[in-house]
Amino acid sequence: MDYISLTIVAFLVAFASPVVLATDTAPIPEDRSQIPQWFQTNVAPYSQRKGTLDPSLEAAETARQVITVNQKGGANFKTINEAIKSIPTGNKNRVVIKLAPGVYNEKVTIDVARPFITLLGQPGSETILTYHGTAAQYGTVESATLIVWSDYFLAANLIIKNTAPMPKPGAQGQALAMRINGDKAAFYSCKFYGFQDTLCDDKGNHFFKDCYIEGTYDFIFGRGASLYLNTQLHAVGDGLRVITAQARQSDTEQNGYTFLHCKITGTGTGIYLGRSWMSHPKVIYAFTEMSSVVNPAGWRENFNRGYDKTVFYGEYKCFGPGSHQEKRVPYTQDVDQNEVRPFLTLGYIKGSTWLLPPPKY
């Protein structure tokens, strides 16, 4: 092979090699007080990220549009559904739907053909999206108050509720607040309220920061590859309560839940960190405060004993009275500093090419 051919081959190899950006490898610091600086450095606004984001996202952010919703009038629309329907299918621009404070009693679905949508509430005010759908009416995953199928979704400063009544202990009563099925979605300062199956974190790469999630049984479930940062997980009710039912089904699936600098609270005792709904769930808690409501066993015993060898349940440098591992189930992963590192970076959700901070109201 001559020199020119070698040069061309070398260029093609270099061009084809994946570029690993610093934001994908910079670990979230163990010191909670350093999170704001870490976030500012690694999740900078679009104006500072040009040339590093997904091309379709860059194009969308360049042509940002804002529409307003106010039930009292004086805005573009009075309902969220009207605002979403105004966005053309095949949309290629970022559309920020700015919501006035208030209670929006609507069941909202954003279909796959409307990407790049932001639902933005006013910081410090209550912007509540609520409905009462149940599995008996709609089926479990279709019962959600808010369902998002499209990619590049963002929500900030919202309260999302399912107001269906709490099921009696031992009874089935799935009623979702939120189902996220789109890829590359971010949630900032959002609160999710429900009981059984509050948040269906179902598919795609997702980021939750400064959020609050409340429920009883399996109140975070699905197949998402998700990073939860500085988020409170609050269990309510009596009887058996489980935070996660992550639905990974094989070693080859690239999904799982990571909870970093979170806080677990609730009523009563005996809350489990997760259970094996499917065969290969992957869930890790790091730097997380666990109150005494956490069951000393940590994780729900597997009904299928074969799952003892396939689950990945990790805890790393957690603290609080519920964090002691002496009585944990034997299949709890004893992760060390090297093993935990991939879970502590935006690389876990491929965040360097799509994750942006929330817009200003």
From TrEMBL:
Q: What is its EC number?
A: 3.1.1.11
Enzyme class per UniProt: hydrolase
Ranges for domain Pectinesterase catalytic come to: 67-351
> Mind telling me which Pfam families this protein's record contains?
Pectinesterase (PF01095)
Keyword entries, A-Z? Aspartyl esterase, Hydrolase, Signal
- Identify the pathway: Glycan metabolism; pectin degradation; 2-dehydro-3-deoxy-D-gluconate from pectin: step 1/5
Signal peptide residues are: 1-22
Coiled-coil ranges (or none): none
In the record, the note on similarity to other proteins reads:
Belongs to the pectinesterase family.
What's the protein called, per UniProt? pectinesterase
Q: Which gene encodes it?
A: A03p003280.1_BraROA
